[in-house]
Amino acid sequence: MIPYVHEIAFDYGRCDQVSPLIRRVIARNPGPFTYTGTGVYIIGSGTVAVIDPGPELPEHRDALLAALEGETVSHILVTHHHLDHSPLARPLAQATGAVIYGLPAPADHGEAHAGLEEGADGRFRPDIELTDGQILSGPGWTLEAITTPGHTSNHVCFALTEENALFSGDHIMGWSTTVITPPDGDMGDYFASLEKVRDRRFQTLWPTHGAPVREVGPFVDAYIAHRRAREVQILEALAHSHTRIRAIVPILYAAVDPRLHPAAAHSVLAHMLQLVREGRVTCEGQPGLDADYRRA
User: Are 205 and 219 in contact, with CB atoms under 8 Å apart?
Assistant: First the structure.
């Protein structure tokens, strides 16, 4: 079982000091994919970096600018191009003179179908495209870009060296598992990225949604084990002649909010695509939500 962390103390728009180098402002955009809303992180003081500015909501923009009053924003860092993470980046850069860092939205961002995610910001283009291991720094703080494809192809996490912490975006969240939506989301990439983070032995994870994860090693191990268990469940469902994804989802996700079943279907598809690649499952025709699958 994943040891989820659900408790989080906050007020919308309030700027909270959550560690010696980290402040957080949470946007009022709660929902089934965002939990309490988008948590925007401000790193350092005086000259600061902002991670995942969030949605372009007037109330949220004003709260964030108030939290940054009197400071210089040198870096705006974006984990990925979904609408609850990136849209405020450009307005914030225009207001502060900061430079935007990240990876651009993929040319085909059709994975963000209505009801499956918060939607894609297909226009997102950073000023500077990041590379794995790239170092960004300011007075008293050092951030390292860690590419973590899986949730999206352009997902990047950011490690804060001074606190051995990772801003994990949607790659790892304390309150829920992450949706993997093909074709941009890829389960094989996701497993590799989870292992990449686990091997770094971070002390704390700061997801964009929800509370921090303090017991990082066991939590990431449980995240990986959960995905492996889901593979086994899918193979068992196929063994019982449930050959279509839409028939498998209500069985595997019976305890999950039905609003999330369409997204769950895409995560099952991501698993199925990986199982087909590995030769453990076969598919009649092109793999997709409505294809027939069999155990190999």
Answer: yes
Q: Are residues 195 and 236 in the same domain?
A: no
Q: Is residue 1 part of a domain?
A: no
Give the pLDDT confidence of 69-98 residue by residue, as tens digits. Answer: 999 999 999 999 999 999 999 999 999 999
Q: Domain ends where: 223, 257, 283? A: 223
219 and 230 share a domain?
no
Interstrand relation of 47-51 and 39-43 (parallel, antiparallel or unpaired): antiparallel
Within a domain: 5: no
Q: Using one digit for the tens of pLDDT, what is the confidence trace for 31-51?
A: 988 999 999 999 999 999 999
The verdict on pTM exceeding 0.85 is yes
Does 155 map to a domain?
A: yes
Q: Both 75 and 210 in a single domain?
A: yes
Whether residue 93 sits in one domain with residue 156: yes
50 lies in a domain?
yes
Instruction: Measure the CA–CA gap between 44 and 40, rounded to whole angstroms.
Output: 13
Residue 73 forms beta bridges with which residues? 48
pLDDT confidence of residue 117: 60
Q: Residue 255 sits in which domain range?
A: 225-295
